[in-house]
Design brief:
The protein contains six helices and five strands; from the N terminus they run βαβαβαααβαβ. By secondary structure, the protein is of the alpha/beta class. It has one domain. A five-stranded parallel β-sheet has the order 3-2-4-1-5, sandwiched between helices. Helix 5 crosses helix 6.
Length: 146
């Protein structure tokens, strides 16, 4: 088992069972969902079913909507405009809800091995890499992309 404090995971190319297996193998105890909209066309990845499935697997779940990308950022990401998405998201991080939820994510990650969850398979193209880097800077933890 990999020892970690913070991981990131995207479910774009995976089934729910595969995601849960990767999380368990990495020793993750809490999934922090950083999607603005915790609904998905992918089976098992909408907030209620995802939370229940993770809990059944012994993994906690917390949705921090304020750490999700605003719609213009999601649109830019879908079009492959990662730089534009990053600029929009970084401006969003100054919003009061984002500030509070980033502090909460730091506290959660400091207490137990956690994973930031979003859709994109490639963390470098996803806002969760920005969130993970900010948490790493604040609590001094290693980050692993699952």
């Amino acid at each position: 088992m990999i020892q970690l404090r913070l991981a990131t995971i995207g479910y774009e190319n995976a089934t729910l069972d595969q995601v849960i297996e990767r999380l368990r193998d990495a020793g993750v105890q809490l999934v922090i969902d950083v999607r603005a909209v915790a609904a998905s066309r992918r089976a098992g990845f909408s907030k209620t079913i995802l939370g229940a499935s993770l809990n059944a697997a012994g993994i906690g779940y917390r949705h921090l909507r304020g750490l999700g990308t605003p719609k213009p950022g999601r649109d830019a990401a879908r079009k492959g405009r990662t730089g534009e998405m990053r600029a929009i998201f970084e401006a969003h991080l100054e919003e009061p809800q984002a500030v509070l939820e980033l502090a909460e994510a730091c506290d959660l990650a400091a207490q137990q091995p956690s994973a930031l969850l979003c859709y994109e398979a490639d963390a470098s193209r996803c806002h969760r890499a920005i969130v993970a880097d900010l948490i790493r800077q604040r609590i001094g933890c290693p980050v692993i992309d699952l």
